[in-house]
Every structure is written in C-alpha cells, then in structure tokens.
Design a protein that fits this description.
The strands form two sheets. The chain has a seven-stranded antiparallel beta sheet with strand order 6-7-5-4-3-9-10. The chain has a four-stranded antiparallel beta sheet with strand order 2-1-11-8. It is mainly beta. The N and C termini lie close together (about 10 Å). Helix content is about 5%, strand content about 50%. It has one helix and eleven strands. The protein has one domain.
C-alpha cells in the first residue's frame, strides 16, 4: 500500500506504510501531530499529540502529558479518505517520514495554497 495525495489537479503516490502529519494551530501557534498507518482498509489514525491546549484544541480526558506533549490514542476505524484544508493563516501541513518532514507543496511539486488536499491509501506509485 502507498499514500496518495491529490491537490489542485496533481496526484502523488508515496511508498510508505506509516507517517506523521504535523501542523501549527492558526490561533494558538502550537504544533499538533498525528501518527497514521496506511492499511488496506484506509488510513488509520494511531496516535495524536498536542503541545498545549486552548482555542478548540483541548486534548481529550484520556490524554497523558509525556515529554511536554499531551498524547492519546484515538479509537476510530480506518478512514477511506482524509481531507486537509488550508486557511493560509498557519503555514502548511507537513508530512514526516523516516526522520524528515516536507510540506505538501514540496511533496506535490507546486504551491498548494488554499486548495484542499485529499489523502487516501492506494496501490503503489
């Protein structure tokens, strides 16, 4: 399985089984991270982390503070598609894998801007 990204007429398949999605909250200016797994059933959210709370980003009651991050394991089934919007107020979504992070614009090869990006599990590049 691979991760497919589609935005503004571009499609990119990445051969990876797991990744971390990172973004900066537009109001609080703190990072949020989510660990995802690419499965035959879709994209599985494995763990979420946030550096703080406030303005609609309160961690759930089961979250635990570990090394300055509130961490928890969401319990939801794999999703066939994850849609990422971009307000332009907080910078870009970043996708991290094997110790490096790149913006969606870097991955897709053109500025994503305010365009929606769709993530899905797909069969190979």
């Amino acid at each position: 399985m691979s991760l497919c990204l589609a935005s503004a007429g571009s499609l990119k398949a990445l051969s990876l089984a797991a990744f971390t999605l990172v973004w900066t909250h537009s109001i609080e200016k703190i990072d949020w991270q989510e660990d995802w797994r690419v499965t035959a059933g879709g994209l599985q959210l494995v763990q979420a982390r946030v550096k703080g709370s406030g303005a609609g980003m309160e961690p759930p009651p089961e979250a635990r503070l570990v090394d300055g991050w509130f961490q928890w394991r969401p319990h939801r089934p794999p999703m066939p598609e994850v849609v990422l919007g971009n307000s332009g107020a907080a910078g870009e979504w970043r996708l991290c894998h094997d110790g490096s992070c790149r913006t969606l614009s870097e991955i897709l090869g053109h500025p994503v801007g305010a365009n929606v990006t769709r993530m899905t599990a797909c069969n190979g590049p």
